[in-house]
Amino acid sequence: MNGVTNISNDERHGAAIELRSVSKSYGAIQAVDRVDLRVERGEIFGLIGHNGAGKSTLFKMMLGLTPASSGEILINGGSVAGKGFRATRRALGYLPENVVLYDNLSGLETLKFFARLKGADLKQCAPTLERVGLAHAGNRPLREYSKGMRQRLGFAQALLGKPQVLFLDEPTNGLDPQAIRDFYFVLRDLRDSGVTILITSHILAELQERVDRLAIMVAGRIQALGTVQGLREQQQAPLQIELRLSEVDAVFARQALSELNGVSCSSSTLGLSVSCPREAKLAVLGVATGLGARLLDLTIAEPSLEDLFFELGKARE
Ligand SMILES: Nc1ncnc2c1ncn2[C@@H]1O[C@H](COP(=O)(O)OP(=O)(O)OP(=O)(O)O)[C@@H](O)[C@H]1O
């Protein structure tokens, strides 16, 4: 029996975050419903879901900002409801969806303010501003900051104290494409140094290539969990194959493809758009290559995270 307990303790220490049947209700509203989740150290983990799915509530419980109605939450092996959580909390960084900032303070003063609250070394403030690309604006008052600059500053305050676990709630809101790239560059750097990162976003295309794993929440529950490729396979989402053909050849190809199981075709501006199950891919390619020089071009698109999200919604309807 001891052996079993030891294995489970070892596992517990390996996880940055572990949730066991965690629920939260606000009166009659079941915001989070029996969520089990384990996030490993050094993972970039995405949490996606519709408005009101329960993402922010889950974050707040993991941060110890709001108590769970039931279940257990462990951060770095320690319970968020336990006495030692004050110490654990110092190892956490949080960028809320709407960070409150004071217009009359400069960027640097703002960071110093947050550093004092957090008990972080004030010497970290200037380098942290630089890390988020705000070194040039550190002495300007926040009333002169753009939305994207405020968001970067919010990210900077989350980095103070060198957190081991970072919670980022819609962190790229208001960032331009270059700033989004810079932001994920910093995240990868943090991940490579062992920081665990949880991130929510409604911009699924942005998360798709950047998270190690993700969970899709629907109405308070985790409905799907894994890597993007793993979710594609779990959900058996169809591939989209575009064939560039003349109109006459498209009619011919459509007829041949209609004989394959699970394959459906529709006309497209290029010729033919083919939706096919993963296991029919080679058969479709066989038909396509059989067209020889009449096939002018071909592209294969894996289902996007957005496709998977909507497929999951359809499966529930
Ligand atoms: N303090 C609160 N009091 C009452 N209900 C709340 C409270 N906070 C959240 N809720 C409810 O809990 C549910 C989950 O809300 P939550 O903010 O966690 O969703 P979300 O997934 O973060 O949504 P969004 O994508 O819009 O940010 C919603 O029905 C919301 O109305």
TrEMBL record:
GO molecular-function terms, A-Z: ATP binding
Lipoprotein in keyword set: no
UniProt keyword Metal-binding present: no
InterPro entries: AAA+_ATPase, ABC_transporter-like_ATP-bd, ABC_transporter-like_CS, ABC_Transporter_VariousFunc, P-loop_NTPase
Signal peptide: none
Domain ABC transporter span(s) in chain numbering: 17-244
SMART domains named in the record: AAA (SM00382)
Pfam families: ABC_tran
Keywords carried by this UniProt record: ATP-binding, Cell membrane, Membrane, Nucleotide-binding, Transport
Matching Gene3D superfamilies: P-loop containing nucleotide triphosphate hydrolases
PANTHER family listed in its UniProt record: ABC TRANSPORTER ATP-BINDING PROTEIN ALBC-RELATED
Protein name: ABC transporter ATP-binding protein
Biological source species: Roseateles albus
